[in-house]
Sequence to fold (144 residues):
Amino acid sequence: MKVLFLNGPNLNLLGTREPGVYGKTTLADIEVMVKEQASASGVEVEFLQSNSEGELVSFIHGARGKANCIVFNAGAYTHTSIALRDAISGTGIPTIEIHLSNIHAREEFRHKSMIAAVCVGQIAGFGVSSYLLGLQAAINVNGK
Ligand code: DQA
Fold:
């Protein structure tokens, strides 16, 4: 089983970006934690990040036939991107939406997710643990 962890805009800045909101852990640190937990479960994980909406669409297309599941922190594109929503529904790859912060407890513009309706479910507000919970959800979804 393979899980693709897809990370959207500004998540490359984790560690220094608004640490009061997103914590001090870098994306590279998160990748190590997720891969440790994944290998204990016999699951292969790939991490990708892009600040570009089109590249994220291409990453989703490229996961066809390769990844069983996508765990997706789409960053700010969560709230705006019909293109990402269509890529998820168009490929049919089961996708789990994740966020470090609780988007529903923040500014109103973050309450709406364009991708939520085409995702299996949403995990938000658990900091770095949102990634680990996302991995667990992907394993459950895939029945492994
Ligand atoms: C985020 C929440 C988004 O609203 C924000 O634009 C991000 C990060 C999160 O992980 O909490 O970039 O997806």
Q: What stands out?
A: The domain at 2-141 is CATH 3.40.50.9100 (Rossmann fold). The chain has one domain: 2-141.
